[in-house]
Structure formats: structure tokens, C-alpha cells
User: What shape does this take?
Amino acid sequence: MRTQWQTQILISPQSVGERPKLVSGGRLSVDQTYRIFTDGSAIRNPGPGGWGVVAILGKQRWEMSGAHPWTTISEMELVAALKALRSVEGRARIELHSDSEYLIYGMRSFVSRWQREGWRNRRGIQLQHRELWAELIEMNTRFSIRWKWIRGHNGHRDQSRADQLAYEAARSLCVQQKVAA
Assistant: This one.
């Protein structure tokens, strides 16, 4: 059984107060579109890992990050997306941006085939992180999500911040593990 991921939510100065909540019902407007940027990191892959999220709704913005003691970058990329999607309440349009081709193209193209093939890839190998993919599929049916790939380390402010949050969470946990050893 996996242990729970550590999570911290950082509220940026321009959004002091609670995370925005959407009211169910009615038509969704452009103002009700969440723009979410996610990233994952792992020190020594596998090793201590972290995930980071920057979420924007209108003029409000919030950040989340967390860590796990033994993981991979791929797993942290999936966890970052899930943590972000779990934070959305009510009906919403979502643009989820990630530099992970595994996540974006997995959700855009491959999950239906993986399900049909008994959660195996083209080589017949059992797909890792099936439970995370299954929850992502459930979120994809609940929300209107556009899965958008963004080139990593390209200077995009929000993607770079998600990357920084993920790395800092992983690095912090790695330092804690060394001190405890």
C-alpha cells in the first residue's frame, strides 16, 4: 500500500482567501475556465519526488505542491494533474498544461487503447500507475478538459513555476531524508 503524498497549498498574494468555488448549473463562461500548469520531479529517478501545480481562474491564482519519498518523474506528473483536478469543484472548463508527453498524449490518445488491451502497452507490458490513469479518466469524464502539451523549460512563467514547486518539494524531502539517516 502506498503512503499518502505530502501536500502543501501556497496561496499567492493576489488571491488571499479561499480557493475560488464555482456554482453548479447554468452555462460555463470563459471566466469559468481553469488554466492549470503541472509538473513532476524526482531526485535520482526513482527517488524522492515532488509535484507542483499553478492554477488560475480569472484573476485568482493558487499553487500546490507535495512530495513522496520513493517515486518516479512519470508518477509525479500524473499525481500533479490529479491533485490539480481534485481541487476543482462544480462544473468547470479546464485547460491542463503539462510538459509531460506521457500524461498529455496518454490522455488524448492512448488510454482507450490501454483499457481495451487490459492495461497493457503495445509491447504487451503491464502499464504502470493504472490506478492513477483510471482516476484521470474519471476526471476527464466529469470535467471538460483540454489536455495541452507545453514545451518544458521554455521560459513560460506558470509552467516554470510549477517546475520550481515540484523540484523544491522533491529537494526538500530529499534533504529531510538525509538528515534523518
Remarks:
- The CA atoms of residues 98 and 150 lie 6 Å apart.
- The chain has four helices and six strands.
